[in-house]
Design a protein that fits this description.
Strand content: 15-25%
Radius of gyration: 22 Å
Distance between the termini: 31 Å
Structural class: alpha/beta
Largest sheet: 6 strands, mixed
Helix content: 40-55%
Shape: globular
CATH topology of the largest domain: Rossmann fold
Strand order of the largest sheet: 6-11-10-9-8-7
Number of domains: 2
Amino acid sequence: MGIGMVELYQDYKARVDAGELKADSAQAYMAQRFDKLANDLSQVKSGWFSKPIYPKGLYIWGGVGRGKSMLMDLFHDHATLKPSMRTHFHDFMLETHEFISQWRKFDPKERKKHTAFVKGAGDDPIAPAAKRIADRAKLLCFDEFYVTDIADAMILGRLFEQLWKRDVVVVATSNRHPDELYKGGINRQLFVPFINMIKDKLEVIELQSDQDYRLERLITAPVYYSPLNDEAEAALETSWKRLTTGVADQSEELNVQGRRVPVQRHAAGCAFFNFTELCDRPLGAADYLSIARRFHTVFLSHVPILTPANRNAAKRFVTLVDALYEARTKLVMSAEDEPGNLYPEGDGSFEFLRTVSRLHEMRSSEYLAAERQASEKDS
């Protein structure tokens, strides 16, 4: 048997009672709706002569910071339909395009030997891509469902049609109603059938909370801690717990132009790094942009005083801040000193003044309230 009708709701209510979350009738309703889906999935059975009938999935949309991702994380943790996958939609599409590119390079013999081989598919990569995904997940939970790329738009309908034929249950969060997806995009008329498919296969529900809880949690306490000491690190951890609302930490790897960028700690749309992980490794603008797009808030600990002796790390730090700033991704950090004292003198200190200005601005309430610019995502 799977989760009972109120188990997820009870988990949500316990977090409210413990003060981790504020009571919110819209979130409470959505927790109960997730409970129903989890319960319906637990009741699915196969007959001797018939395929199991799976319930519709969910498409949850609403404003930034309303708790969509948090509730979906609770659902994924509780749901018993296995195997399951909880992934960021941007990462899912990058991986799918990578597989499609590889499949097109295979000769017929290589395709036939591949575990994703689908009889009759020929050189069309869509059915094999769907088989590969369905073999890995009967339940797909997408965070930040959005479409801005024509390459994505042109394959989504065919890909998801194949996934639903394979009885994959889809749950998605988004800032946009399905009718608003890819609005103004090139050849959008070719994308409209997929929108209709979403509305047919998924129950579309708006999370109607008026409160931006993420912003409230961000402005509750400072987002910049110095000097580096036990008090600063404890404060950083407290901020992490407040913003991730008790969601369990996970790790993953981002796929950036064929490279893997490890994220050792992330939860609820936040990622936690130390300075060494991001700035003492050979990372570049593309890596930092991927991080900025993937996470709405980045925590960065142990930023040291920067000098010409560690100029490479300093340049990477500048590039990182630029990427986060341009995307309006939020930054919570601990550092040896205030921004103006991080690069006091020597080669590169003058160029660092722009970074100082941006670090100050990124602490302002106006910046913390600003919508993200990397894409139409964030939940």
